[in-house]
Amino acid sequence: MTGTVSKTEKLPIKNSSDVVFVRQRVRVWATDLKFSLVDQTKVVTAASELGRNTLEHGGGGELEIAEVVEGARKGIRLSFSDKGPGIADVKQALTDGFTSKQGMGLGLGGSKRLMNEFDIQTAPGEGTTVTVTRWK
Amino acid sequence: MERIPILRMGNFLLVTIQVDMHDKLALTLQDDLTAKIAAVGAKGVLIDISSLEIVDSFIGRTLANIASMARVLDAQTVVVGMQPAVAITLVELGMSLPGIRTALNVESGMQYLHETATAYGDSEDYDGDSE
Amino acid sequence: MPLAKAATQKEIETGNDLVDCSRQPMDRSSLERWELTNLLSAWYDPISVLGSERTWTTPRTFHHLAVIFTFQQRFSRYLVQSNRLKRGLAICRIGVGMAKVLDAVRRKQETVLDGWLQGIKAGIRRRDLIDERELKSQAAEVLSTLCAAPPDTPLDDPNIAAWQPLRDLLATLSASRAVQGFTPSETALFVLSLKAPLFTIAREQKGESADQLYAEITSIDDFIDKLALHTTDSFIHGRDQVIARQQEEMLELSTPVVTLWDGIVALPLIGTLDSARTQVVMESLLQAIVETNSRFAIIDITGVPTVDTLVAQHLLKTITAARLMGAECILSGIRPQIAQTIVHLGINLEDVITKAKLSDAFKLALERSGRSVTRVAKVNASAQSGAREL
């Protein structure tokens, strides 16, 4: 991932109210960075998806929000990490419609479509870290 | 625990979602609505999401579930007032919510319910408003 | 030569006690000691040492001197052949020389300014874009910023921090030139004309060898060239910003949403649909749907030259988003070639209502919203609209 980090904030994700708080904080960050309304919505929705994933599949974890700068452009980077069971087959997890639990299975692939950059580090038994970035 | 209020207008139920729902709240709404549809024998449900700034896959799922459950209970559901930014994001996310009827605002939503709620059988098709 | 003189002095001082020795044969060690002491002076100027009062009588001394001579000759040749020392010395000299040039510029600012302005006026073609006074004040400002740099700043690399104020000033100037309508070469010429007066200053420095002058001139030349390139870059950047802003405005203007009737809007698309434009188009259409409370939106693609999978995807996204909001989209203006392309590409338009002409789409929208168009009998010759208010 490119860009230099200038500011960060860490948020715990331990229950569903935390996910709501995550949405609110990401909204504030996106507004401060002067994203358009549609882009803000995309970023917050992706945060909501990934936050929920962290809670339900990862057993809880944390989010780090960062403002990144690369040359003349600015962006927001969200990094969700948990110490859960990890994802065995990432490719499968990214396909729409795949879900290991009850749901529509759009969280991971959907978030990838909503953001500009997507990175996932995971292995069975080693937890998961998903990092996404959206540039202005 | 907070609950989302469900209003009754004759044969129809009206729900306005104004808060940033966390998952438990959404599930509670699902339960409450299905219970109330059965209790009053409602023929139509109108869900107003014009204040919702974020609709993620979970909320979308919940809305789809509500519509399916209502249909089983012989009630028509219409979701009204989705914001443009939300619509664009949902499409990008890959959710097109087929099978959920939508309308621009409460007025047109109620109009739709009046027209279709009395129709029996398959009143589900998208462009089938017989007027 | 001062060194040789000192040597002879030393000779006299140290050699005084040996004066008497010279009358007698010296023993070897003291003679050698004496010779070593003078070796240094012999290094610099064997001839004057030779010409000193002290006579070098011993054959050994002669031998030493011969060795020194030969060695010195060979070493000088080595120095000339390898440029290393020469360059090193040259750089030291340049550093000193550059600081001197900068100093001279500071002292003779007016002269430099005049020379510069002359050069600019000789090259400038668009006299109408900037008047003389403004030109003079701009040049004066640049010159004073140049002179305001710390005294020891070398005049060779404009990218170091000390020259930042100068670079910023030039960037601002060239950006404004871009807006005014100058060409990039005219803006660069502004900076390049400074070379001539600086070269003149360098030449006026007294006591310089041709090599040093050459080195100074190439250094100034290089410095000014780099500044001129920086100016051109800033100019282009300024122009790019103007273009980007104009593009944005054009984008907004080219997606108007028109209201055809109560609750029916139309979006005539003209031109290519790329990702960026589709975003804007989508947002403005959906916004218009909300504002006009329209249940029907007609997207007319008569003006879209080609429809490929990407464009079709963009259109489908727009239509789905509108549907989520509660509005129905009708696609119209599909030309026969477009219809063929769509089928060939396997694009699925099953869920979308499509019409060949916008009028058909309009008629459909009217029907769907419970309206119809009827012909009314003409009364006398007065012009009456064919369709009554619905």
What does this structure look like?
The complex is a heterotrimer of chains A (136), B (131) and C (390). Chain A is α+β, with helices and mostly antiparallel strands. Chain A contains four helices and five strands. Chain A has helices at residues 16-32, 37-56, 90-94, 107-114; strands at 4-13, 61-70, 73-82, 117-122, 128-135. In chain A, α1 (16-32) packs antiparallel against α2 and α2 (37-56) runs antiparallel to α4 (107-114). Chain A starts with a strand and ends with a strand. Chain B is of the alpha/beta class. Chain B has one domain: Transcription Regulator spoIIAA. In chain B, 42% of the residues lie in helices and 17% in strands. Chain B has helices at residues 23-40, 57-72, 84-93, 106-116; strands at residues 6-9, 12-16, 44-48, 76-80, 101-103. Chain B is globular. With 390 residues, chain C is α/β, with parallel strands linked by helices. Chain C has three domains: 2-81, no CATH class; 88-248, Orthogonal Bundle (Globin-like); 258-368, STAS domain (Transcription Regulator spoIIAA). Chain C has 15 helices and five strands. Chain C has a five-stranded mixed sheet with strand order 1-2-3-4-5, with helices on both faces. Mean pLDDT of chain C is 75; it is low at 1-24 and 53-57. The interface between A and B is medium-sized, with 26 and 22 residues.
